[in-house]
Amino acid sequence: MIDRLEQLYPLESNGYRACAGDAIIESTGPEEAAMADFPAVEMGFGNRKPPATIYDIARQTGVSPSTVSRALNKPGRINVKTEQRIRDAAASLGYRANPMARALPTGRTGTLGLMLSDITNPVYFDLIRGAERVTSAAGQTLVLAESQEAVERELDDAERLLTSVDGLILVASRLHDEQIIELSAVKPVVVVNRLVEGIASMVPDVVPGLSDAVTHLAELGHRSIAYLAGPSASWMNAVRWQTLFHLAGQAGISLVEIGPGSPTMAGGSALLPRVVASGVTAVIAYNDLMALGVLRSCREEGILVPDRLSIIGFDDIFGADLTTPALTTIRSPLAQLGETAARVLSDRSETSIPVSPPTVFVSRASTAAVR
Amino acid sequence: MIDRLEQLYPLESNGYRACAGDAIIESTGPEEAAMADFPAVEMGFGNRKPPATIYDIARQTGVSPSTVSRALNKPGRINVKTEQRIRDAAASLGYRANPMARALPTGRTGTLGLMLSDITNPVYFDLIRGAERVTSAAGQTLVLAESQEAVERELDDAERLLTSVDGLILVASRLHDEQIIELSAVKPVVVVNRLVEGIASMVPDVVPGLSDAVTHLAELGHRSIAYLAGPSASWMNAVRWQTLFHLAGQAGISLVEIGPGSPTMAGGSALLPRVVASGVTAVIAYNDLMALGVLRSCREEGILVPDRLSIIGFDDIFGADLTTPALTTIRSPLAQLGETAARVLSDRSETSIPVSPPTVFVSRASTAAVR
DNA sequence: GACTTTTTGGCAATCGGTTGACACGACCTC
DNA sequence: GAGGTCGTGTCAACCGATTGCCAAAAAGTC
Prior knowledge:
The first copy, chain A, has about 375 residues and is α/β, with parallel strands linked by helices. In chain A, about 40% of the residues lie in helices and about 15% in strands.
């Protein structure tokens, strides 16, 4: 079978773009598709060559290890001539400083941790991107960890991560305030999408976006709407609900809370029956994923959107504008929050930091006037 | 300003779900939305308490550090009574082993690296999930790195990562074969979506899915189709093109290659004019992102899909079934590849490993019979 | 009771860097 | 020429674990 693969993808020295002139294509039969008998390949976990150390460089150049260390990290401290010799040797040996050996005496690991409930939730894309950009610009490494919405696990992972990181960004953490404060006693911690006293916190200001959304619905004639609640342990869910509660009151719109539900498409879908039963003409969901879940279920149920039900999401994730109808939503400035969080940790600046960029209402096609 | 925020999100000891009865809601004026003057908060980067070490435990229990180390890691080596005393002390001090101090003498870091061109590309979601699942089940940590489609940077990051990781998974790497082989001389390396001689490689078998796709198009009466090429440095792009080339030939369908383009929605959109000019009735894109880009541009240009143009994507990413029309695509078993890759590195098994699970054609609504 | 074996715990070296203290020579100054 | 300064490089301690080897104590054997 491996033969067939190699015929199919003939290798060249540079690995790809081989001429396919004599490749043999044949359909894979069902028996070949079975899991049990994939083509297999041998792993070569054999003898590896240990990476070069400053001791190797020292021996080769005839200086002491400490001189090597200084030549490589303290420009000017060592004679330029010597420094160059050392640099050349380092390059020829393919030297790379061992980050752990370095971290041990210094305490600096050159690494920031980013913890979120679900790495693959599109909501966090821009946030991750933003943090990545800042981190790598500062020559540091960003490590991502996932807590799977489990408090138990989140604390454990956070503690583990904390020991090997210069700072930690907690996004939409489900931990208790005290637990977060405890973590911050060990290493700098920044929380995003949550407000914790005494901890650098960055939350978008939900008022502008939500306010515009409510006005928008009011202008379309909606008098009765629902909020699709996310996880009850989510601080941001509480904020969105409370804010909406007041704004709806001010606008004279009646509001019901439906949920809590899982912050996923499935979670949204599951709540549709209750939405229908409530008789509301519009829903605002905790996030876009839930909104998309509702949207999909509506299509399956034959409920016309936006004619019979208007839907508003939250976050403006990837894909929100690809649906039909395109999803009206409230955009959170997550890229900016990610950047800021990373910058704060990266600079270790004692100065005050920005904390509350505004959300923006994005009007698309999933909202319309009440019939 | 911070006052307003606190009024808006009043804090309680447990952090959320505070009563919002007296919160004050007012619209944010435009001047407040300006970037310059976000509410700010002071960071407390003050004196941190250093984490507990085995020396602290040793002192408290009156034994030597080596005994502590053994009590915690070599069950049975130490008297149960002593071991328990040590465990209790460790717990009361909140001890957490410093992974770097441990890695230094042992060489084992308990960490796997996963490198991909773009963390936030939905294509890789399932792959990341799969790798994460296996890794964390094995008590290890997965660290993600992003290479931004830049070979220079990818090599640099890979080398840096390699020093602090037990093994490395390279996904859709743009590196040269030699570079990858060199990396694998230092630490175990697995490549995904690419075939490199001598390196454990996992690629989906594109034939089944692509074959069904071509048959599908042929049955719908398409006689002339286009392939929207992805990055020319992508091994997988070459494979998809070559395979399609043969399958189309066998089916008697004429085929043109359009591109290469960036593997993004923008990349797909940019190629639409050339698709139109070519006069084909169907396109198969390098990936779903490009297919979605074409789809969106078609909508903007008033080109009906699938009536005037059939579109097939690749990978079946999140959102592919949310569009209108829902995207017909070829699903890659990436979750499985991610799991397998992680398992191979995690077990360090010398045994042979599965390597080529089949792709599956997913027929949805973006393909139809030629008028 | 003397000898052997097993259990239990400590000593010290090691991993690969960093860094404060210091030695040595060159150069400068009065 | 004595004293001071500066530039350059080495020594040795240290970060927090792991682990091979050994010693003391306890248990077992004849």
